[in-house]
Amino acid sequence: MTITIRLKRNGPYLIGLEEADQVVILDPDGNPCVPEAGRSIALCRCGASSTKPFCDKSHRRICFVDPPLPEAVDPPAGPASQ
Description:
By secondary structure, the protein is mostly loops. The protein has one domain: Ribosomal Protein L9, domain 1 (3-Layer(aba) Sandwich), CATH 3.40.5. It is built from 2 helices and 3 strands. Strands 1-2-3 form a 3-stranded antiparallel sheet. It is globular, with a radius of gyration of 17 Å.
């Protein structure tokens, strides 16, 4: 099974409702963080949420902007291509 996590531009990581039942989120001590039932999961990326690891839309208040994506890099050449 593939679980898709989508980056919302200038916002949270989104895990769709279909995949949400397949995801377990643990805090640093190994305790489960339980998302709201029956909803997609939105995980904070801006660091300002008061409900971490979940998004509380603080990214809007602080005007969070995505960092630039790294440039694409060609994979290293394997032994067959040398």
